[in-house]
Amino acid sequence: MSAGTEHQPPGPIEETAEDLAAGGRRRRRRIDAFPYLLLIPATILTLVIVAWPLIETFRLSFTDARLGRESYVGVENYVDIFQDDFWEIMRRTFLWMGLGVTLKILMGLIGAVLLNAALPGRALFRVLIMPPWIVPIAIGVFMWSWMYNGQFGMISGLAQRFGLIDGPFEFLAYGTSAFLATVVTDVWVGTPLVALYLLAAMQSIPTELYEAAWTDGAGRWYRFRRITLPLIAPSIFTVALLSAIWTFNSFDIIWILTEGGPRGSTTTMIIDTYKTAISRFRFGEGAARAVMILVCLTAFAGVYLALMARTQRTDR
């Protein structure tokens, strides 16, 4: 065999490699689809539990649905909302939410500072602060309802002993005191989580910043005002926004204590919606009120998501 007629290797090697690559791509496509198949049951469950009730609520809000009958009324339910005492209920809702969130942030910030300080028994205090959040809300609120009782409640008894009141006082029987009682109970329930959230933010601050400020002669108040507060400000805003969402949508605290009374002084939007739809069987009007609550919560959620996106961009 001459040099010009050397034996050449088989030609289809490149085609075989291409075939292998194509087969690999097909296998990757099959493998990549597997996680999405696993999501199908959860997606169906979400559609059944969340999407369908939401769609049904929107549909009912355009009807006068009651027990045994239902007819289309257009936007009449939404018009009636604004003609009733809606604005007073909304004002009360935002007042209740504003007082509760403000007090929870203040109490939580004080608690976080104390938990972060080098004080004896700090670990025990971290454990003792959690029961209001861990205990089921119904149990905790029932405990407060007994404490508010004028005949055998602890608060009325202590107030009489210290001469603040002359006789038994039913805190839940009067509008202003009942409203403040629900705020105090809500603050008691929500403060521990706020305190631990802010404590985690404080402990993420580099100690070198405090050491440098201490070396320069900065006092504790100056370090707190110039270092701690600015660095935990995003966390304060985040937990305040989350607390606002939870407080706005809170039902159990008010319902267990007062059921929205006396004379509607503790009726918030969520309580009004429940009474309209469940107690009075006016499902169409109740659905319209629920849609209004959804709009408010969506606005809160939009602000929260925008804050999270901004925080992530800042971290990068």
Could you characterize the architecture of this molecule?
Helix content is 74%, strand content 0%. It is mainly alpha-helical and 316 residues long. The chain has 2 domains: 8-60; 76-315, MetI-like (MetI-like fold). The N and C termini lie far apart (68 Å). The relative contact order is 0.11. Its main location: membrane. The chain crosses the membrane at residues 34-55, 94-115, 127-147, 171-199, 227-248, 287-307. Belongs to the binding-protein-dependent transport system permease family. This is Carbohydrate ABC transporter membrane protein 1, CUT1 family.
Supply database-style keywords.
316 residues, mainly alpha, MetI-like fold, 2 domains, MetI-like
Task: Tell me the strand percentage band.
Answer: under 5%
Which sheet architecture does the biggest sheet show? none
Oligomer class: single chain
Number of helices: 13
CATH class assignment of the largest domain: Mainly Alpha
Order of helices and strands: HHHHHHHHHHHHH
Estimate the global geometry from the Cα principal axes.
globular
**Low-pLDDT segments:** 1-5
Q: What does the average pLDDT come to?
A: 86
Q: What's the total count of β strands?
A: 0
Alpha-carbon distance between the termini? 68 Å
- Helical residues, percent: over 70%
> Can you tell me the number of structural domains?
2
CATH level-3 fold name of the largest domain: MetI-like fold
Keywords: Cell membrane, Membrane, Transmembrane, Transmembrane helix, Transport
Protein name: Carbohydrate ABC transporter membrane protein 1, CUT1 family
Membrane topology: Multi-pass membrane protein
InterPro entries: MetI-like (IPR000515), MetI-like_sf (IPR035906)
